[in-house]
Amino acid sequence: MLRVVLYVLAGVFLLAVLGYFTVAAPIADARFNETPPDPPEPVSDTARTVHDDLMVADLHNDLLLWPRDPLRRYDRGHSDVPRLRAGGVGLQVFAAVTQVPTGRSYAGTSADALDQIPFLAAAQRWPLRTWTSRLERALHQARKLHRATAQDERLTLLRTQADLANALMRRAGTPDLLGTLLAVEGLHALEGDAANVDTLVGAGYRMMSLTHLHDNALGGSNTGLEKGGLTEFGEAVLERLNEHHVTIDLAHASEALIDDVLARTEGPVVVSHTGVRATCDSPRNLSDRHIKAIAAQGGVVGVGVWERAVCGDTLAATARAMRHVADLVGVEHVALGTDFDGTVSVPVDAADLPHLTEALLEEGFAPKEIRKIMGDNVVRVLRRTLPVGKPSG
Ligand SMILES: [Zn+2]
Q1: Distance 86 CA to ligand 1 centre (A)
Q2: For 123, which of 24, 67, 110, 353 could close a Cys bridge (C-beta 3.0–4.6 Å)?
Q3: Distance from the CA of 49 to the center of ligand 1, in angstroms?
Q4: Among the residues of the chain, which ranges form H helices?
Q5: Distance 156 CA to ligand 1 centre (A)
Q6: Would the pTM count as exceeding 0.90?
């Protein structure tokens, strides 16, 4: 009898282990990145015509964190390369996430809380070194994109201004050409060593935010406990980022950190995915003072489509936030940063981005303004921030 019980227990244990390493990650993916229902109505002919003429640039997407082959179309999550193409996206920034503390909240997220990423990495059977190293997690996510670009010649990684110019030129003849850019969400990925900036740049990373959900060795997060400014280490890293022509992303930065970084950066910066306090008052969102400061340096504010960024579960709420930025500092400083697959609730998936064009038309934007918001403003900034160089092979 005892032997039977032991066999059953061993069987249950084995099944649990097997389940953890096979189905746990896809289940978490489907649950945290719930696919929204198809919109009830197709877009109008006018919106379709305007949208078909766009080159959509999206400043933020977390697809690389999840157990999905970027090239395959899935019925879970918010995006993949086929859905991005269907949505008219021509330039996609993919961000690497390397630490997500348990119990995170806008009120204050502790850096010391249990990190969820090792569990997600293990469940996806990422290499062992990624279970303990945040730098390795970033490098692994970069490799995932490198593999995809190697398999699809109409998918390309942008490392230089020359790459960007080349992609824009190719897109004229190949409308489903998708240029991609690698970003890091929070430089705790450096593991305290500024020299690791070189490693990340070597892996193709060209856009970096200093902080993510918690305060780190560089400075404060807008959802951190202290929400402080730039540290001495942060200052050293910032200098290195500027030397490497890494585009600075102020998403998730505390107010003090935004002030400190802007004071030490001459060129344009981006806020890759955010809302604005004027239409959605939260510590995670940008104040008018900071929107003005970012615009004054030629930067862009990437407005998100997720519910908590815009205080609404419709694309009209996103259009309203974009309208606020446009009225405050000019349409040249408005951009899109969806945060697709960022464990958020969104009204549409990437394939249904034409509905955002419809919402912008309804908000009263002219087609030529929509062109800027949906893509051209991001291209303008990257033309200034990316390193000059020969196209990479
Ligand atoms: Zn984020």
Answers
A1: 24
A2: 24
A3: 32
A4: 2-22, 24-32, 45-52, 81-86, 117-123, 129-132, 134-151, 161-173, 196-202, 232-243, 255-263, 288-296, 307-310, 315-329, 354-362, 367-371, 377-385
A5: 23
A6: yes
Ligand 1 centroid–CA 176 distance in Å is: 27
Exposure string for 159-180, b = 16+ CB within 10 A, e = fewer:
bbbbbbebbbeebeeeebbbbb
Segment 232-239 long-range contacts (CB within 8 Å, at least 24 positions apart):
233/192, 233/194, 234/210, 234/260, 235/264, 236/194, 237/187, 237/190, 237/194, 237/197, 237/210, 238/210, 238/264, 238/265
Specify the pLDDT at position 390.
Answer: 67
Structure confidence by residue, pLDDT tens digits, 40-57: 999 999 999 999 999 999
pLDDT at 239 over 60: yes
Task: Compute, in angstroms, the gap from residue 284 CA to the centroid of ligand 1.
Answer: 10
Question: What is the model's pLDDT at position 14?
Answer: 92
State how far the Cα of 107 lies from the Cα of 222, in Å rounded to an integer.
9
CATH of span 52-385: 3.20.20.140
Distance from residue 135's CA to the centre of ligand 1 (Å): 18
The stretch 225-230 carries a mean pLDDT of 97
- Reference 378, options 268, 304, 276; nearest CA is 268
Q: Is the pLDDT of residue 393 over 60?
A: no
From the centroid of its chain, how far is CA 196? 21
